Amino acid sequence: MIKKGFTLVELLAVIVILAVIMLAAGQNVFKILDDAEKGAFKTEFIDFLNAAQLASQMDVMNGKITASSPTKCYSYQDLTQTYGYYDAKDGYNGSVKVTYKNGSYTITGWMNSTKYIINEKDQNVTTDTDIQQSNGATASTSCGS
Q1: Per-residue model confidence (pLDDT) at position 44
Q2: Whole-angstrom Cα distance, residue 93 to residue 91?
Q3: Which of 9, 19, 32, 76 lies 20 to 30 Å (CA to CA) from residue 89?
C-alpha cells in the first residue's frame, strides 16, 4: 500500500526554512518602514518651511517685515491657525525663523513630531544626519531662543 503525503521531518524542514526567511526579511521591512517615516517627516518639515516663506512674503508686502526689522519668527500655531498656510498635524510643533534681506530669504526651522526632531536646519535637511529620534524632546517654538 502506497501512502501519499509529507513526512513530519519534511514539514518541519519547510517550517524552519520559512522561519529563517521571515527573520531575515523582517529586519529589512522594519528598516524600510522607519526610512519611510523619516522621509515623510522630512517632507512635512520642508512644507513647514515653505509655509513660513509664504507667510513672510505676505508680511513683506504688508510692511510687517522691513529693512529695519528683517527677521521674523513664525510658530507652528502662527502658520496653522493665524496664517492658515500649513495644515496642523497631531503631535507636531516647532518654529521657523525667516530673515529677508536684499530680496532674498534665509529660512531656518525647528520641528518635532511624536517620534522625530529637527533642530535649526534649512531646506537642505538630509534624512541620515539631520533627523533624529526625539526621545521626548521638543523643538523650539520661539526660533531657538
Answers
A1: 94
A2: 7
A3: 32
Please tell me the pTM assigned to this model.
Answer: 0.81
**pLDDT band with cut points at 50, 70 and 90 for residue 42:** very high
Give the three cell numbers for residue 112.
Answer: 518635532
pLDDT at residue 107 greater than cutoff 70? yes
* DSSP-assigned letter for residue 67: S
Report how far residue 131's alpha carbon sits from residue 117's, in angstroms, rounded to the nearest whole number: 6
Q: Which helix (H) or strand (E) holds 73?
A: strand 71-75
117 in Cβ contact with 132 (< 8 Å): yes
Locate cell 531657538: which residue? 144
Q: Which residue has the cell 500655531?
A: 77
In the prediction, which pLDDT does 1 show?
64
Contact 139, 93 (CB under 8 A): yes
Grid cell for residue 34? 522607519
Q: Do residues 131 and 118 touch, judged by C-beta distance below 8 A?
A: yes
